[in-house]
Amino acid sequence: MLAIVDADFDWLVEKATASPNLLFTDTHDLETMILQSLAFEKLLVEFGSEDKITTLVEKHNKDIRSLLLDCAMPIGYLRWVSLRENMALKFEELSFEKFVDKEKLSIDVLKLIRHVQGRSSFSAQGQKQIPDSVLHNKIKLLSSTSHDPWHVCCGHDLVCVLSLGLRKVIGSTKIIEPDMLEACLRLAYEHSHFCKTQLYISIQQWETTNAPFIVLKQEALDEDFIDGNPST
Fold this sequence. Notes:
Elements: E1 3-5, E2 22-24, H1 30-36, H2 39-47, H3 50-60, H4 64-84, E3 100-101, E4 106-107, H5 109-119, H6 132-142, H7 149-152, H8 155-167, H9 178-188, H10 191-194, H11 198-209, H12 218-227
Parallel strand pairs: 1-2
Antiparallel strand pairs: 3-4
Helix pairs in contact: 1-8, 2-9, 4-6, 4-8, 5-6
């Protein structure tokens, strides 16, 4: 039996693979793998504004992917801090508009911390709320230029930031919910994109080692990625 799971922060902490039958995504999760592919460009063509994107890229001298990563990195680090220190911070259903500036595609880290802590139940965990400044410092201490942003950032966070950006600074669309954007990205993700990933190569190697088992059947592969669950 072969299982494929999100890498999350495992590559950053150099966590050893528990089993040869367990494979990880190339980046933090499936969504980040798709955002790395040409499916992202297809999404921007459909929902973005070419003029606005060009203006933003020229202003910051960075492409849109890099700007999204810059914005979402503090969220990823906060998730990592919470995981490392068993803080049980709640990240589900965050209101990104409360800490992300959709006109600049930038993040206010202190507002992020206050929002996450305000939604987390510390009493149930027997914990006291950590001062915002202390948590902010923990993020700074954990941050490093040696960390690959694609492993730090959660794909859902990137899509939520993208959703806000498409409403203003890189598009003029009506509200497009993150769930819809994620579905569009999955539909735009082609077999040829997946074939370029390390995960695809790893599955091929697993098939060679575990003959006659076959995983990469075309029809099954297409169905799995539309469902957003590339596992066997």
